Backbone:
């Protein structure tokens, strides 16, 4: 999945809490709910004959017992019991959408489903426990080979989102069972499960489409199933929908039968996969098509009005699939890949196997970001879909790899990739690769405060929310692994890892042993490092180390500490004591190559003996930051002034980024930042030059905010900027007209606007804007929020807005709000002191989620 919601995504979860199970009127005959079949004999009879037509036999074991008591079963853990595993699902879904020939009746905007699940019993049991939530269960029955099995009762366990079918006898391992469940519900409106997404016809008329979004745990909102990644099974889907609509699912269609107002299409059985990857779309769309080198069909579907805007996505996906198939040595295993553009989507896009759903603005048009998202979702077809995490604890493997592969995928599209120059493409510093990885490290550092990589944020009913840290930190950690074992070894190990684990589930150790195996073979067993031991502290602890480098007469002494002032109880993992085994890549001034030495967590300090200056974390390979003493900064600055080519581009960039973040959190004096930025202001690499100059511009902003007027530093930065607004403007792209109008009417410049907000006397402007943000007019929202965050003197109102669950974030989510959310995240750095009064994430978490580290 590509997340588009970079702040704590439990915001939206909280908002959606009010959505309860509602049984569609047409399923509530006689005003009663179908929780127990016996009270609804007419419908049960209907099912009886319906089953005959669908499954070709009469369900003899079905009994009209009225034993639907509420058995109290306590489950203290969210994971499903593993006594029984699904093997094959047959799913039928009839969707009643308006806007087509059928005369919409009381069934409108609802759906009716039936599922048969063939299962394998692995442990003795007398209860089938599967997931189901917010569904109307109409009926359930079970058969075995002896035809002597019955469901004694069934129970809905809301606190765990379980549907528990109690059997009339104990079933033994090795037996095969088949369960039939009929169910239904309204199409949801909260972008989870099977829900409504709106679009507009070219004529301007509104259209309603239906689409699914299941990751992490929302498949259970559409169909009772084993909704955890490790319960892989095949799915055969049959969709019935109003004639004229397009019906799509993961696989290619085999047969369509039109029967008056409705059409039924049967699709090919999927490969073995996790339930969160199942997907359905029904609605009014058209497509454009292409094929890959080996003839795989790729289509991009969009509403008729926008179908001409899909060419870039179509072209990028073709090149990326060709590239990934070659790189991984494994062909995409199904007959087609479809992309669908929808207007209402919680995430950026979702990698459903063979049916990738994108938020419209992340697939229509020619924005660079579209290509990145397309590549990310395609990388998932291997990392995530083919090889899947065992449980949600390993989600970082999915998202980390898909993010990591985005930069490689970009080279397929740019034409910079060629299999003949494998070593070249992957080991030569490639500008876009470097920029990408460094930006991922930066993003990770902004977020890496509360949750370790190996963590799951459970809601209290067992729902799981995908965390943004999995992406950037996951990718940065994977890059560190790559650099430790060597790039070519790394890709060889990746191919082995994928081919050894296809169609199954993995824990982290599977990856580590694949890496170790190749590494040891190719280095003739010289290495003794255990990757799993190394990884333990990086994946189970939040935060990251800061390495302090102090110049002594003999050399440079390194010590380690964690960067952020984090309360320890954010994680309950104590094994590492907030220390890490750190791979120290360092470069001695003037020497082109860099060395790797290990700074182990039980080492008090590490000394590198040299008279020359050294830079630690050369090439920005490592996910940690470095703080030098003043003497070192002075000599580094001097050397850079004399010879700017002493260090590589990424080493210099790393130096600047570490300086910047540590100056903002007051770990170092702004003076050191000014010194180095000034030395690099005319660097040979435009990106370094640009960044150094930006820092000189922003430093004034920082010095002013810290009230540390330093005349010398201000003299240096004079000429680069005295205008805070220039910096701010960087964060607020896409100004909207409405905001622009307001702005022009009231202020000469954004600087003046910001100053006004800061001025206590004019607090009514803040109040006005906060009131306006609470109205339905969403235009310019993100800009206003950004200004309020940075400039408003009285931030209490703004804080209230950000953490007020009733605040309507829909407009923000719909807008391209990534930029805005980045601003929100940046508060950790830019506003460390001022924002300390924010409700801490911990309080927020304790209200909503439980953080667990797998033992
Ligand atoms: Zn993803």
Residues:
């Amino acid at each position: 999945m590509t997340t588009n919601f970079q702040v704590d995504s439990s915001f939206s979860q909280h908002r959606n809490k009010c959505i309860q199970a509602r049984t569609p009127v047409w399923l509530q005959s006689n005003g009663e709910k179908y929780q127990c079949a016996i009270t609804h004999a007419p419908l049960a009879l209907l099912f009886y004959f319906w089953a005959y037509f669908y499954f070709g036999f009469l369900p003899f074991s079905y009994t009209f017992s009225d034993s639907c008591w509420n058995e109290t079963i306590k489950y203290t853990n969210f994971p499903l019991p593993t006594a029984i595993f699904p093997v094959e699902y047959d799913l039928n879904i009839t969707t009643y959408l308006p806007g087509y020939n059928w005369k919409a009746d009381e069934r409108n905007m609802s759906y009716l489903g039936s599922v048969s699940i063939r299962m394998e019993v692995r442990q003795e049991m007398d209860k089938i426990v599967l997931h189901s939530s917010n569904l109307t269960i109409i009926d359930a029955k079970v058969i075995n080979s002896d035809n002597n099995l019955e469901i004694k009762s069934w129970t809905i366990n809301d606190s765990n989102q379980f549907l528990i079918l109690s059997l009339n006898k104990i079933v033994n391992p090795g037996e095969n069972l088949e369960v039939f469940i009929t169910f239904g519900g309204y199409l949801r409106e909260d972008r989870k499960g099977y829900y409504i997404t709106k679009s507009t016809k070219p004529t301007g008329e509104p259209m309603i489409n239906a689409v699914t979004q299941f990751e992490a745990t929302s498949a259970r909102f559409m169909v009772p199933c084993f909704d955890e990644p490790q319960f892989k099974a095949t799915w055969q889907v049959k969709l019935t929908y109003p004639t004229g609509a397009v019906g799509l699912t993961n696989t290619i269609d085999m047969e369509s039968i039109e029967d008056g107002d409705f059409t039924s299409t049967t699709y090919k059985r999927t490969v073995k996969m996790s339930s969160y990857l199942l997907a359905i779309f029904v609605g009014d769309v058209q497509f454009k098509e292409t094929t890959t080198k080996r003839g795989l069909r790729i289509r991009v579907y969009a509403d008729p009005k926008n179908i001409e805007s899909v060419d870039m996505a179509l072209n990028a996906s073709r090149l990326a699939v060709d590239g990934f198939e070659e790189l991984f040595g494994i062909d995409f295993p199904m007959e087609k890949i479809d992309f669908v553009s929808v207007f209402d989507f919680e995430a950026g896009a979702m990698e459903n196997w063979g049916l990738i759903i994108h938020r419209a603005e992340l697939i229509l048009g020619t924005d660079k970001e579209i290509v990145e998202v397309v590549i990310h979702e395609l990388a998932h077809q291997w990392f995530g879909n083919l090889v899947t995490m065992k449980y949600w604890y390993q989600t970082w493997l999915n998202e980390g790899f898909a993010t990591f592969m985005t930069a490689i995928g970009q080279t397929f599209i740019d034409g910079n990739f060629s299999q003949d120059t494998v070593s070249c493409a992957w080991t030569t510093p490639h500008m876009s690769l470097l920029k990408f990885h460094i930006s991922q490290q930066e993003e990770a550092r902004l977020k890496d405060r509360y949750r370790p990589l190996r963590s799951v944020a459970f809601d209290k009913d067992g729902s799981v929310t995908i965390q943004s840290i999995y992406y950037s930190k996951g990718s940065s950690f994977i890059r560190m692994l790559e650099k430790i074992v060597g790039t070519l070894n790394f890709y060889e190990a990746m191919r082995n890892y994928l081919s050894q684990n296809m169609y199954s589930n993995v824990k982290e150790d599977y990856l580590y042993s694949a890496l170790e195996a190749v590494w040891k073979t190719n280095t003739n067993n010289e290495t003794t490092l255990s990757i799993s031991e190394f990884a333990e502290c990086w994946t189970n602890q939040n935060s990251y180390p800061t390495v302090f480098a102090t110049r002594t007469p003999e050399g440079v002494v390194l010590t380690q500490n964690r960067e952020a002032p984090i309360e320890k109880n954010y994680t309950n993992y104590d094994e590492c004591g907030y220390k890490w085994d750190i791979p120290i890549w360092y470069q001695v001034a003037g020497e082109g190559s860099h060395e790797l030495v290990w700074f182990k967590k039980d080492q008090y300090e590490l000394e590198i003996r040299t008279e020359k200056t050294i830079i630690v974390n050369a090439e920005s390979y490592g996910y940690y930051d470095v703080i030098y003493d003043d003497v070192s900064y002075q000599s580094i600055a001097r050397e850079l002034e004399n010879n700017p080519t002493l260090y590589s581009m990424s080493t210099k960039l790393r130096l600047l980024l570490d300086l910047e973040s540590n100056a903002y959190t007051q770990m170092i004096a702004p003076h050191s930042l000014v010194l180095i930025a000034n030395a690099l202001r005319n660097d040979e690499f435009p990106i370094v030059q640009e960044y150094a100059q930006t820092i000189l511009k922003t430093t004034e902003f920082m010095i002013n905010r810290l009230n540390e007027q330093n005349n010398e530093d201000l003299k240096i930065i004079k000429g680069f900027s005295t205008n805070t607004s220039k910096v701010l403007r960087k964060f607020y792209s896409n100004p909207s007209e409405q905001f622009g109008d307001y702005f022009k009417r009231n202020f000469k410049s954004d600087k003046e606007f910001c100053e006004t907000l800061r001025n206590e006397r004019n607090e009514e402007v803040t109040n006005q804007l906060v009131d306006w943000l609470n109205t339905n007019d969403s235009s310019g929202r993100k800009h206003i929020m950004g200004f309020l965050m940075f400039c408003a003197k009285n931030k209490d109102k703004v804080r209230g807005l950000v953490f007020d669950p009733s605040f309507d974030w829909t407009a923000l989510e719909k807008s391209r709000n990534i930029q805005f959310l980045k601003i929100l995240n940046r508060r950790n750095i830019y506003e460390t002191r001022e924002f300390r009064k924010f409700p801490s994430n911990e309080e927020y978490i304790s209200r909503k989620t439980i953080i667990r580290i797998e033992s």
